[in-house]
Amino acid sequence: MGEPVRLLDGGTARVVALRTLPGVGPMWDLSLGAVHTFAVGDVQAVVHNTNCLSSYAQQGGHHIYAKAAFRGDPLYDPNQALTASDAQLTQAGAVHIGPNSVTSAQRAHFDQLADDVAAGIKTNSLQEHTRIAVQSLMDGGVPQAQARSWTAEALWQLRSWGITGPSRIPWN
């Protein structure tokens, strides 16, 4: 009771009641491809079967949102930020570092964003960084559904910390 539950819109709700249903019945583990995160119920609570992401301090790996984007923000902790481990990336069909990797794709997308911001075409916003997070994972080999799921989980974390935007464009 009182446990926070994430909502699809980035907010939170609290568990106010628990109910045990007596008897035995079928139970299903819902997964669609590599996706384990879903919005359910009238309040669109975000639930997941497995905790695919962990903090950098726990497992290392690839920060879903580039940590350098939030350098200097007192609300951001790169060691607690959610990451996909190298093993998770490999299992998803991706590579963390090197040619054709998630990180090289991320850098190319941020270089393009810097050019677009300088030209007045785009802004350095959390929306753009979210697009880059998903696209970089996909470019590195992560299936679209998994890339979106991981990015949604990491975005929820940033919002729960009170982060509303990046402080800079990484590699620029």
Structure report:
The chain is of the alpha+beta class and 172 residues long. It has a domain at 54-160. It has five helices and seven strands, in the order E-E-E-E-E-H-E-E-H-H-H-H. It has a three-stranded antiparallel β-sheet. Strands 1-2 form a two-stranded antiparallel ribbon. The longest helix is centred in the middle third of the chain and has 17 residues, at 102-118. It is globular and about 60 Å long. The model has no long low-confidence stretch (mean pLDDT 86).
Give a short summary of the structure.
This protein has helices spanning 56-59, 86-91, 102-118, 126-139, 144-160, and strands at residues 4-6, 12-14, 37-40, 45-48, 54-55, 62-63, 82-84.
List keywords for this structure.
172 residues, alpha+beta
Number of strands: 7
Secondary structure: helix percent: 25-40%
Oligomeric state of shown chains:
single chain
Distance between the termini: 46 Å
As laid out across the biggest beta sheet, the strand order is: 5-7-6
Poorly predicted runs of 5 or more residues: none
| String of helices and strands | EEEEEHEEHHHH
Structural class: alpha+beta
Strand content: 5-15%
The biggest beta sheet reads: 3 strands, antiparallel
Present the secondary structure layout.
Blueprint: E1 4-6, E2 12-14, E3 37-40, E4 45-48, E5 54-55, H1 56-59, E6 62-63, E7 82-84, H2 86-91, H3 102-118, H4 126-139, H5 144-160
Antiparallel strand pairs: 1-2, 3-4, 5-7, 6-7
Helix pairs in contact: 3-4, 4-5
